[in-house]
Every structure is written in structure tokens, then in C-alpha cells.
Amino acid sequence: MAIRKFDTKVQHLKYKVLREVARCAWDDTLLENITEIPKKIVPGKTPTMRCCVYKERAILSERVHIAMGGDRSKSNVIQVIDIACDECPAAGYEVTDSCRGCLAHRCEDVCKRGAISFDHNHVAHIDKSKCVECGQCAKVCPFSAIANRKRPCQNACKIKAISINKDNAAAIDDNKCISCGACVYQCPFGAITDRSFITDVISHIKKSEGNTKYKVYAVVAPSISSQFTYAKLGQVITGLKEMGFHTVIEAALGADIVAQQESLELVQKGFLTSSCCPAFVDYIKKNFPDLVPFISHNLSPMAAIAKHIKAIDPTSKVVFIGPCTAKKKEVMDEEVAKYVDSALTFEELQALFDSRDFDITTLEEGVLDNASYFGRIFARCGGLSDAVAQALKEHGIDDFNLKPCSCDGIEECRVALLKKSKNVLDANFIEGMACVGGCIGGAGCLTHGEKNKAEVDKYGREALEKTIKDAVSVLNIMK
Amino acid sequence: MEIKVCIGSSCHLKGSHRVVEGLQKLIEENGLSDKLDFKGAFCMGLCQPGVSVKIDNEVFSVKPEELEEFFEKNIKAKI
Asked: What is the architecture of the domain spanning A8-87+153-197?
């Protein structure tokens, strides 16, 4: 059953580890069970995933370690499990046995480097010393006989942070990596994974002693509307409360705050990039240092709402739950750590529910309503720009001509930033989303589907408050 | 006197936005700003038919349309 909750079997495997670790953490039996968990997941002697059960269990031991937070001295939350890496072929463009030795030789004609030659059977060969991996030959071959042997992780990593180490396994350059998790979702062997802080969250809940010692708040990202599709959103909210969260608050209310303030900052500075997506912000810092002054000074929506929660309830613990692996890194930032105690992904939340054997489909529907339509649509690409346009309108600013550039995925972000650095960008606001589709494309989502954008928009329209100003007004109470 | 208005989801749907704005206005009009500590809370764990408003240690259920009456009886009269 559970497998249907995810896109891939790799996610399901990761989930099983997280669920077992969480079960032990609730019972305080993690230390004595650490070595037992791999045997529980892979019992018997028949391998189902690798060459033998011993290798499977060795990899699972690593997964258990990562599910418990991994190497806490490291700042990157994305990690390669060396022994799980299948050392996929990475030779680039190669002629396969589908080559029929035709007469046309389109491949030869299109190759500007003269890298294609033919043997006595007229079959094409690529001279690797001449090939520049442009891919033109593959495009023109009528038999699709030329394949690009590229590792899925390297293909997923558009910022080129993944290389191959001396042992032929994938290696991440932490100085380049923006923790977006694209490689985590794409690696077919589950050899790259995100460190989990699920045990920290369980500890926050347990030590609160039923929210009597202090209260534990869940801040959920608006992309939740496209997740847990087998249940109702209201049931997910009730599930969170049953699990021990005092209450659940929309990160989208933080997005309303951000839209309101960011629009003013934009008018003041004349050009701005968004600061909601931590992977995008990290990307600018690492690759376009000259553009850093243009990054919005606002906190992300997650941190903005958490700041309000901590102001209302200073002893509280705030846990963010969203689609994002980069958020786990963002919460380690000194400025954000003051407000957010831990970050979880939707994958981890599923494991947390099942560690308590909750069938959320049987629960009553709770309510979740703090934000406006505009705060909620931050979850999909273009939503942030729409919200900034609305905020300008609500501020009564009509002499500022907003020209947004909504970047869908880190490649589009790179192009826009490059243009800006050369002063040829025809826009005054860059909305940067590292994941394609926006947050709904995040690596920590349970499922990624065509309908997700529509789900987010539908959820947006259901908000009680129709304007940003009305949604944010309840927070004026603190002034 | 400490007044806490719940701005959690359940109360929000019952009109905490109107209660917050209404109370702020009434407090100001009656010149009580200095005598009151006006705060918010995200869920008091006591969902009721109206918006939960806690005055010192007592929790009331307040409907936005009955706000003025509530203010007169439980805030203005007791201060």
C-alpha cells in the first residue's frame, strides 16, 4: 500500500528506514536497535536490490546513520553513500548497436569536430579525443543509435557540483552544492540522500510532555496542498496534532508578510531578487557575489512566520514541514536558527505518521487557514511575482512598473542572473525557484504530478482572506 | 489586565481578524491602551463557537457581531 504514496521505490526504501528509526526514537530504543534495523528491512538471505543481503544491509546501516542526522559536523545536508553508488557509465556520447551502418551519415555531416568515423561494416564510431559532447549526432540519427551515457546525478545537477572521485563514485563539491536535492530525487540507486533530523523533531515533541513544558508548532509549506493526496488536507492537520504538535500554522502567512515587505524594498532599490528559495539564495552567493546586495533582505516565509510565533510564544519549538531539502540547511543559518528549530520534508512526515501507525484517512478533518490566496500560491512558479504585484497594488503604489522574471528551475535562474550581471536583463524583479515548477517540484515531495499546480491554485482560492493586507492584519496585534 | 485573542486557524475562520481590529479600535476609543496588555496566540486548544479571547485567566467565546457588548461587559466594566 505504502508504495503508492511515493513516486519511486528509492523513496519508499528511504521511508522504511526513516519509519523504523522514528519508531525506535519514540520508544527511546534507538541505540540498542541501530544494528537491528537493517535486518528488519532486509530479512532472510535472498537479496532483492543488490548482489547480496550483506551489501544491502551495509548500505542500510549508512541510511540509518543519515536518518539520525548523519555527520553533524558537516554543513551540507546532501550526502553521497559511497557504497550505494553503482558507478554508472559516464562516457558521454556513444554509438550503440542500433547503428545500422546507413548511407546517409547524417552524424558525420553534422559533427563540426570531425569526430565521427566508420568501420568496414559502415558502423559509426566517435573519436573521444575530438568529441565535445554537443549531442548533435544523437539528434540527427534516424535510428536513435547514439546515446548519451551520463550519470543521472550529474544530469540532475545543473550547477555541476557533482564529479566522479578516484573510486569512480559520485562526489559532491560542497562549495558548489546548493542542497536543492535534485540529485537525491534522480539517483536511481538512492546513493545520494538528504540527512534527516526526524529524531530531533521527535525529541522536541516528547520533551514538551504533551505541550505542557513548552509548545511545539508545525509550520507547513503551501505545497502540502498537492501532497498526501490519498487523504484530505484537514486530516493531515489533525494527524499532526494527534502526533503531538500544539497547532499547525501556514508558512503561507509568512509569504504574505514577505510579499508585503518585499514589494516596498523593490520600489526602494529599483531591482531585487527574491529570498524565499534558500537554494537560489545560496546559488547567488556562490556564483554571483556582485549581485548579493540585490538579494531581498526579507527572511524567507518560513522564517518570517516563525519569528512571529517566537514573539508570541518565546519558549516554543517551531518545526517547518515542506517539500525542500535546502530548508534543512537554511535552518542551520544563525539568523534563521533563532526562529526555526528543525525542518522536515513531506517524505519524513509520512514516515513520522506511519511510525505511530496513524491512518490519517480515518481522522476527522481539522482546519488550516491563516494566509491569503497570494501567500498560498508561492508554492508554484510565478506565484511570488503575482503576490508582489498584488502587494504593490494594496500599498497604493501605481507609479512603479513591475517587470518580473519568474525563473522556473535553477537553469533559468542562471540565465537571468547572468543577464543581470551583464546589465542586459529586461526585468526589475527576479523570482528564483531552484526546482522546476517551484516548491511543488521539491525533492522532499512524496509525489510530483501534472496536477500539482492546479491543486495549489485551488487551495489558494479556498483561503478566507482575499488580500495580503487582511491576512497579515491579525499579526499587527503584536505592535 | 491581559487580553489574548486567538489567531489560530479555527478562530481565524470564525473572524479573529474582525475581533482583533474591533478590539484595537474600541481600546483606543476608550483610551484604555495603557491599562491593557493586548496580545495574540496561535490556538489556545479551546475551539468554541466563537473566537477564543482570554482575559487574564478566563477564556471567552466571542462572535465578531457581539464584540461591543463583550467589550462593555468584560473589559470596560472590569478595568
From this structure: 2-Layer Sandwich (3.30)
